[in-house]
Every structure is written in structure tokens, then in C-alpha cells.
Amino acid sequence: MISFSSFYKDIADSNLQHWLETLPSILGQWQRDHKHGNLPKWEKVLNKFNYPQPDTIELTSSVDIGSGDQLTPGQVEKLTNLLGMFQPWRKGPFTVHGIEIDTEWRSDWKWDRVKGHISALQNRTVLDVGCGSGYHMWRMLGEGASRVVGVDPSPLFLCQFEAIKRLAGNQHPIHLLPLGIQELPPLDAFDTVFSMGVLYHRRSPIDHLLQLRDQLRMGGELVLETLVIDGDENAVLVPQDRYGKMNNVWFIPSVAALMLWLKKCEFTDIRCVDIDTTSLAEQRSTNWMKNESLVDYLDPNDATLTVEGYPAPKRAIIIATKNQPNHDLV
């Protein structure tokens, strides 16, 4: 069974220690709820990850674990097969012992768009909300973060993260909790909170922004990346049914509307630092993610539209600072 004991030990003497009052029972319930389904099968696969400590780890320009010279060809083949049991791999890419996990998303491209605009992560405590398999968490660690915690409710993403962490060596201060942010007790402790690719999946975007704010220390930085549309501060797309074949997209605001929402939640120093239209090279099917991808979500006759006729995916990065809250909002 996947254990969270290293997380509890890591935060025991930190500014996150108050979570120890509640999270063990919450995570214990999560473990009991997932005794059936695919998790037990994936945990058996993880038990086979008995590999030597990597001779090299590169986290600044990529996530590259092991030089590729430590394992025999037979071991590489076995490891490739084990990693393949955690398909589909959506966020990455990762290279482990020379094995290239070519994920659906080129998450490194998003990171390149983000990292030049945020406060330096050196010695900062970071929360990554909706972290997926944890690719960006490793890049945050590579930028010098002192501790990185990710939350994502998917058991598959947890197992993908655990696979990479075991190959990298478990000593790193990086942890993934299989929870949604709404399950986290407010902490007011993180220096930086990331929410990338989450807001449009939330039924109440304002509540999501308030939950993000409640995890930040005063003066902490929010890094928000989400789908947007063109328009003024009153422009918000509410898909009637699906958006890009996704049935869990609720609100897609304009940049101006999103900045207004953040202002209403009493963030300050709000600025949009990047707007980018998702390309077919950034999100696509691969041998590690063989399901449908972006090309299947767009109108085959007009790539500026989704198959439902909505504007094609455009993503913005907004950065803001936590200000003194008005408790009338919460």
C-alpha cells in the first residue's frame, strides 16, 4: 500500500505541521475507499520498482533521472514494461534510465512560459494544485524550492508520481496527496501556490480562487494558468454540454473577467504574463498516451474551433499576490 509516512515526517517540524491534525484521517479514508478498482493492481506494479539510486538527476532543464548506463538491456526492457502499465501518461516528458516517456502534453513548454515571470522559488514552500503526475513539481524542485506538495485526486497520477519518485530516490522533499484542494484545511503557509489547468473544471471558480488564497501566506504568490476566451470583463463562456469533448468544463472567462474575479477575491498586483493558443505539437497522442488528443477535439475543417463550435483552447497565465482578506467574503 502507498504510504504517506514520509510526508508526515517531512512536515512535522515545518510550517505545514498543522495539517497533521487532520490529513492522516482524510488520507486514511482515501486509502479505505480505494481498496477496490485499479489501485491495488498499480500498487503491485510499484512494488517491483527495485532499482539502484540514479547516478545523475537533472531537474533544471528537464526531468531526467539516471544516465542510462546503470541498467542492463534486460532491466531497461522490464522497466519500460512496468512504466507502460501506468498508461495513459499525460503530463511530462520524463526520461528515466534512458527511457523516454513521451507524454501527451509537452508540459516543459508550459513551464518555459511560466518560470520567467514568477518569483524565484529558491527556498520557498510550494503547493501545486491539480498537479497530475507531478512533472511541474519536479521542475519546481529543480528551481530550488525547499518543499513541494502537489494535490490531485487521480489514483493513476499518484502511481505515476510514485514510480518517478522511487526511481529518483525517496529522499527528495516532494509529495503528492490524492486529494482535491477543497479537502485541504486552510493553512495560510505556502509561499507560492500554482493552479494550472484546473479552474475551468471547478463548478464554482470563485470558491476555487478563495481556496487557493487560503493556502497562501500573506504576501504569497498565486500562479494561475487556465483556459480563456476573448472579450471584456463580462465575457464568460459556459459550454452547454461539452467543450473539446470534455464534459467537466464549467466556466471559461476572458482574461479581463478572470482578473476581476481575482480582484474580488482581494488579490493584488494582478497581471497577465502570457496568452498562448494550444498547438497540435504541444498536446498530441503518443505511444505513451494512445487515446484521443487535441486534434480530435478540434473542428476538422476549422482548427480555430472545437468540434462543438466553441473557440479553440487558448490559455493564459495570471500572477497575483495574496492581500489581507475581507472575512465577509468567506
TrEMBL record:
Assembly information from the UniProt record: Homotetramer.
Keywords: Transferase, tRNA processing
EC class of the enzyme, as a word: transferase
Residues that, per the record, bind carboxy-S-adenosyl-L-methionine: K91, W105, K110, G130, D152, P153, S154, M196, Y200, R315
Cross-referenced SUPFAM superfamilies: S-adenosyl-L-methionine-dependent methyltransferases
Enzyme Commission designation: 2.5.1.-
Descriptive protein name: tRNA U34 carboxymethyltransferase
Protein's job: Catalyzes carboxymethyl transfer from carboxy-S-adenosyl-L-methionine (Cx-SAM) to 5-hydroxyuridine (ho5U) to form 5-carboxymethoxyuridine (cmo5U) at position 34 in tRNAs.
GO molecular function: methyltransferase activity; transferase activity, transferring alkyl or aryl (other than methyl) groups
Alphabetical GO biological process terms: tRNA wobble uridine modification
PANTHER family: METHYLTRANSFERASE, TRNA U34 CARBOXYMETHYLTRANSFERASE
Pfam family, one: Methyltransf_9
Family the UniProt entry places it in: Belongs to the class I-like SAM-binding methyltransferase superfamily. CmoB family.
Reaction(s) catalysed by this chain's protein: carboxy-S-adenosyl-L-methionine + 5-hydroxyuridine(34) in tRNA = 5-carboxymethoxyuridine(34) in tRNA + S-adenosyl-L-homocysteine + H(+)
InterPro entries: CmoB, Mo5U34_MeTrfas-like, SAM-dependent_MTases_sf
